[in-house]
Design goal:
Layout lengths: L12 E10 L5 E7 L14 E5 L6 E5 L2 E3 L4 E7 L5 H8 L5 E5 L13 E6 L4 H9 L8 E6 L18 E5 L9 H10 L7 E8 H14 L7 E7 L8 E2 L1
Parallel strand pairs: 8-9, 8-11, 9-10, 11-12
Antiparallel strand pairs: 1-2, 1-7, 2-6, 3-4, 3-7, 5-6, 12-13
Helix pairs in contact: 3-4
The protein binds flavin-adenine dinucleotide.
Length: about 240
């Protein structure tokens, strides 16, 4: 059997302690993890994630790195309390001092900076990545436009604002239809001005919605597949239903 010369390094295992738990909005827990295992953590990309090993189980779930500070040995996750799965239940009951294990993030060698206009579409599970993209605007010269479909208007994060003139953030409140944000995100995409010369789209939401939105951008806005990075972050009725599309 041929062995690869440079096998991909495994995501690091990090055993950490819960330093604090906050509730920025009713259905969100902001969990700060800390410990010596975070001394070498590095995350450059706004959508980097770790795998959280739910304590007492062998269940692993993906969570975006909302903030990282290797010097302070801290890592922040924003976990949606959607009410069903083991990870959401852990987040709902976690307390300062609890122990937990995370793996990652995967080392990535793609450039962090970007110059093109980026249009980000997502739901509350994508908000940590989208917020990070807005907040790290000093790392890239490209414009950022964010559309977030909320499942509850109370989930608006009032302190989250674009830092740079020209970047935008649009909260799409629920309108009574149980469509997982599909109709609102599609309307936002149709209203958006796609005429910028260099433009890409990033999509992260429920898997069927992400798939439909990607198809919409290809068919209606004439984007090519290479202009779109799309992922399902969860899937209705399925445990661990996230997938790269
Ligand atoms: C790369 C990546 C990054 C992610 N980042 C984040 C993040 O920063 N914050 C975050 O909260 N989530 C994030 N997610 C989504 C999160 O991993 C999933 O929601 C995951 O399914 C939660 O695990 P669980 O154990 O709570 O539920 P599971 O056991 O996976 O699912 C149990 C049930 O809950 C339902 N369910 C799962 N998620 C949701 C939801 N959001 N809303 C309604 N129903 C749901 C499923 O359909 C299933 O029926 C990310 C996913 C990916 C792939």
């Amino acid at each position: 059997m041929k062995v690869a010369d440079n096998p991909a390094p495994r995501p690091a295992r990090r055993d950490v302690t819960v330093a604090s738990v906050m509730a920025p909005t009713p259905r969100l827990r902001r969990i700060v993890l800390e410990g010596p295992d975070l001394a070498d953590i590095r995350s450059d990309r706004f959508d980097d994630h770790v795998k959280l090993l739910v304590p007492g189980t062998d269940v692993r779930r993906s969570y975006t790195i909302r903030h990282v500070d290797a010097q302070a040995r801290q890592l922040t996750l924003d976990c949606v309390l959607h009410g069903h799965g083991p990870a959401a239940q852990w987040a709902a009951s976690v307390r300062t001092g609890d122990r937990v294990t995370v793996f990652g993030p995967k080392p990535r060698h793609e450039p962090v900076a970007f110059a093109e206009t980026r249009i980000l579409f997502g739901d509350t599970t994508a908000l940590p990545a989208m917020a990070r993209c807005l907040e790290t605007a000093d790392r890239h010269s490209g414009r950022v436009h964010v559309y977030v479909a909320l499942d509850d208007a109370g989930e608006r994060q009032r302190d989250l604002k674009p830092l740079r003139p020209g970047d935008t953030l649009a909260w799409l409140d629920p309108d009574g239809m149980d469509d997982l944000g599909w109709v609102r995100l599609r309307h936002a995409a149709r209203r958006h001005d796609w005429s910028a010369a260099d433009i890409t789209a990033w999509i992260a939401t429920e898997t069927s919605v992400a798939r439909r939105l990607r198809a919409e951008l290809i068919e209606e806005e004439a984007l090519s597949r290479t202009q779109i990075k799309a992922a399902g972050y969860w899937r209705v009725g399925e445990a661990d239903g996230g997938m790269r599309l």
